[in-house]
Amino acid sequence: MRSVHVTKANGPFELVEKDIPEPGARQVRIKIQACGVCHSDSFTKEGVFPGIQYPRVPGHEIAGVIDEVGKDVSQWQPKQRVAVGWHGGHCGHCESCRRGDFITCKYGQVPGISYDGGYADYMIAPMEALASIPEQLSAIEAAPLVCAGITTYNALRNSGARAGDMVAIFGMGGLGHLGIQFAAKMGFNTVAIGRSRDKEEELMKNLGAKQYIDSRSQNAAEELNKMGGAKVILATVPSGKAMTEILGGLAANGMLVVIGGSDEPIQVPTFPMILGRRSLIGWPSGTSIDSQDTLSFSVLSGVRSMNEVFPLERAAEAYDHMMSGKARFRCVLTTGN
């Protein structure tokens, strides 16, 4: 089998041949058809996630077909179409797991970080990490939905916002363009906040945004306040400074939901937060059943990721294109399987 791995932190991507792995008792082997290229793949490429053992194959937006099942796997069968996202397994015995909160497992696993991921022809995954792919979605359509999709969908559906509430999607990249669609399909009064006025404004309105704010030429927080303030701001931008600036656009009882990672701190003004009961929360993707919910909702509502597709052997090019911020809007690798 072919795989693309990194042998050390900040090392190059290398296309190599390896033996096809065998699944353990509670694992399955997946013949990979597509794998999204996510910004979090930089954790493996740059070695910033603690405990990574190299060489490592990145990738945690995986769609394919079960090729073989372990002896203790009964609910999954060969030839079933499955996806694996950020949640790649949990321990089952830490306090979070004992409370059923598997995504915050103290020893949680992530494909492409804890074990070899989706930049390959085959991979091994624990059975608890699997989500079923609806027949209406292709592998290329499904792959980005089990990280970028689940993160935006799950954050929004757990935000407390109700149909008709103003929800602002801050940042119009790989996460943001999906957030716009999910928010609109959930019935929210959806406002897009981006950094240009031309084609981006037209595109985001076509995806479901009722209003568009250009954060380069306008003060986004002030514009939100003119509209009454946002019940929820979904922050997809990788900038703590930008998130700090947008806090002022929250309505009373409003919530900033952070899903964009940044090394910069968010500076929170105490009095506006206290007097308006405003809040700030992070949201960490979701489990395999949340991925399945995301895929099902996408089928029902017509939400789709906009993808640029690359063959597996061009993984390095796809990764660089994604990291440059020029991808419109997700990059997906295909194996030809």
Please describe what this structure looks like.
With 337 residues, the chain is an alpha/beta fold. It has two domains: 2-147 and 286-334, Alpha-Beta Complex (Quinone Oxidoreductase, Chain A, domain 1); 150-282, NAD(P)-binding Rossmann-like Domain (Rossmann fold). 25% of the residues lie in helices and 25% in strands. The protein is built from eleven helices and 15 strands. The chain has helices at 42-46, 95-98, 139-142, 148-157, 176-185, 199-207, 220-226, 240-246, 270-275, 288-301, 315-323, and strands at 2-6, 13-17, 27-37, 62-69, 81-84, 122-126, 131-132, 166-170, 189-194, 211-214, 230-235, 250-258, 279-282, 307-311, 330-334. Strands 3, 4, 5, 6, 7, 14 and 15 form a seven-stranded mixed beta sheet that branches. Strands 10-9-8-11-12-13 form a six-stranded parallel beta sheet, sandwiched between helices. It has a two-stranded antiparallel ribbon with strand order 1-2. Helix 11 (315-323) links the parallel strand 14 (307-311) and strand 15 (330-334). Helix 4 packs across helix 10 (288-301). The termini are close together.
